[in-house]
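TL;DR need structure tokens for one chain.
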Amino acid sequence: MPRAIGKKARRVATVLTALSAVSAALLASAPGAAAQPGHYDFHPNDTRYRYEGKHGTFTGDAVYARQDPRGGNRLIWSLRLSPYVQNMVQGPMSCGAAVVGKSGYHDSHPSIPADYFWHSTITGLQLDRTYTLAARCDFTANNGHTTAPGNVQYTVEFTLHSS
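>> reply
TL;DR here they are.
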């Protein structure tokens, strides 16, 4: 193989390996990354959930209709990416969330900054039914050496129990 082609092939292989490593690192270590969902059982006297991980902080606050009837049973949730992830994000992110078991709910933000405090409310929840909130942010990531597509996914399975 001519010397110029060999150098170019090694450079391409090195870049592809680095891009794969960045994507794999973000996906493999993301909490709840499509494998094992987070889980929380809310009860009338236990209405707060907080998860802090390497990739961000997720909170959930259940509001029961019997405590505050102005909106039925609902979950108020938030997600803020950690400084670790924020520092890798290049440009705006595209984030979206949906709830398995609850038709009609979605929350979408096509162009937000990495430090955005994402929050939303899921209304009309039935008691004693399990739902799964799946949230995902896609972005271009740079680890100081390589730029590649990246994402963070949070999945939380939750139930608002009647007692």
